[in-house]
Amino acid sequence: MATPHINARKGDIAKVVIMAGDPVRVKNMAEMFLKNPKCVSDTRGMLAYTGLYNSKKVTFMAHGMGCPSMGIYSYELFAFYGVERIVRVGTIGALKKEVALKDIIIAKKSYTKTNYDDFYIKNGAGFVEGSAKLCQKAKEICERKRLSFHIGSTFCSDNFYTSFDQVKLAKEENLLGVEMEVAALYLNAQKFQKEALAMCVVSDNVVTNKALSSSARATTFNEIVSVALSVALEN
Hints:
By secondary structure, this protein is α/β, with parallel strands linked by helices. The chain has 7 helices and 10 strands.
């Protein structure tokens, strides 16, 4: 059953997957949230763990950095492992002054200039949408938990270090924050007619230059994982 980038066996990966960039973070998430987590894939160090959360089978898996990496792993999960739903959790840089550190950004849409698979023949810049159903679920859960959150469009960049004026783009396109993987995830979900959503914690603000400490990031991240699990596992 193994693919070039995932060595899990058939049935090892759940229909619902929570993805994060860092393999170490994925390992910590699995140990914290899952009952009897088992490492089911470790090719290239991109770890995947499957276990039970509230008696439901779920997999945590790393996706690495950038659209090419996310594109590979989400493609193989959807195409070869029968995954029906992926929720990405991560951190994001806010592109608006009023978006505070520790806030949650739910990416209803992703604006991108990525050339990932030639934007599936569309080419150029544009918006790609996530699952409206999962987005609504995330909104309801965040409201129920009384969390500070924002729903809207984010910018998916191919460059971490750049001289490009992201703040100017954010004003023009009404973008909440910048990250590097959502567009590829949403494009693959559309390609295979599956569900995907990204939820990210604001770790820094590009406008104010404020940033969370590493310890604060870890604490805040646990909250968003809990929300993501509720979103992913609700009917």
